[in-house]
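Box S2. Input/output pair 1.
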Amino acid sequence: MEKDRQLKFGALLGRGEFDWQAGGQSSVIREVLMDDKDWKKIELDHEIQFNYDNLYDTLFCVTYSSLKSVAKLLTLLENLGRFTPTQLVILNKYKKNGKYNFSERFTGTLGETTNQGAYQYKIAQAIRNYGLIPQDMFSLADNFNDNIDPKFITQEMYDCGKELLDIIAINYEWVNNIDYLQYSPIPLIVRFANYEKPEDILAPEGALNHQVLGVLATPEFTEVDDTYQQRFKRYKPEFTHNFMAFYITINNKSMDVAKFIKENDKTQVRNTNTGAYGVVYGGKLMEIKAERAGLYMIDRDARGLIGKGKTVSITNQEWEQIKEEEYLINF
């Protein structure tokens, strides 16, 4: 079982020199994503920061709660249909058992976690600057020191993190209160405490030392998602501090057109928004206009291609990107 002293470490207090502050100098463009401010209904796996297999506390509370905020945002945006088919193919690499699940070791290490824990802003900067990688790509080490040693991070991991940042930008800012739940799940700092009954409202005295994820708020309590055995806890609002929000901006020109054309030679392509279609041939996407459709089918038949080959779907946004980069021609 975790010792009490281990439970008291993980979150260090401080801010980056150039961090954005809501209500002050901030370039964040906010969008209301959760009107009822209930992020608890976006379900993710319960992950515990204590490594029971090797009997050490990772001290990754800041990392776990920050990554869970990003994972909930991505899940909601996907549910809202914000990503293109091409983007979803890439995003699915970052899931485990159908849910977004990122490597805490990658982010916690790049966020300069020490044997005292990590600063919120350093973890947030690591997420913004290096992206994220799948959970199983970089599992927890068998001892604490190796778990936070950057020498184990490979170029393949850095490249995987960059691949995610080709699709989305992840930003953060300090916010004034829990009301920003309408925009994002809110990582926040508390004094660690356990409840006797799940309905207890916690009000622990003492130094702040633990980051959790705010997922629901009422006038009486803020409900948080913790990374120890007791998962959902209720804190009196005045005992929650240092609120941060994450924001995701989707790169709507994230298709690598040259790569798409190369990997889909002789493949039919359908525009899911307009119904336009074409075929990739000779390093170009040839659009089949209505007046040429008959000739196209005759050509396909002559080649014995009717009913054969694959068809991929792309959005109009991606179609226009192909056109903009001069890979689209008429048949």
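Box S3. Input/output pair 2.
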Amino acid sequence: MPSLLIDLPINPVIDSNVLFDFLLWRYCVKTRTPFPGCLSDTSAENDTLRALDWYLDKAKPIHTSPHVIAEINGLLQARADWHGPRLSAFWRFAQEDLTRLMLDEHLIKLVKMHPQDLVEFGPTDDSILEVAVQTGRAVVTGESDLRGRLTKDQIRVLDRYEILALWQDRNA
């Protein structure tokens, strides 16, 4: 049987929705913190995030933009309602975990973004699009509009469910 890793793109660009759920899940599991309401604690969701953990560990280094990191901070405050010491503890953990995944951040300056893409996708998704186009790397995202645009530009796109299917095949 051929290696499933052949089908997996390495050094992917990770979008904020995927990285937010992944880091929040890892933090809650590792620190035994109760899951906030914005993160499902179902067996299926845990399998999906375990599969993502397996993939990111195999595909490292991972890539993103500072826009994504800033958006995650906002999501933690708005969706998870984390502030103060809990938010600080999360970022200490996230810094270590992103170091483990050899995170490389690519700065895409707002003034250099394509105006139409900026209007259509906003600065965070446009930064993901720009990094993918500039580097030719695959993108892991759950956003259908971004997926469509990346596909149009012939950039490979994976979502967490495709990664789950590959992980399940590997463990079958």
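Caption for Box S3: The chain has seven helices and five strands. The domain at 4-171 is CATH 3.40.50.1010 (Rossmann fold).
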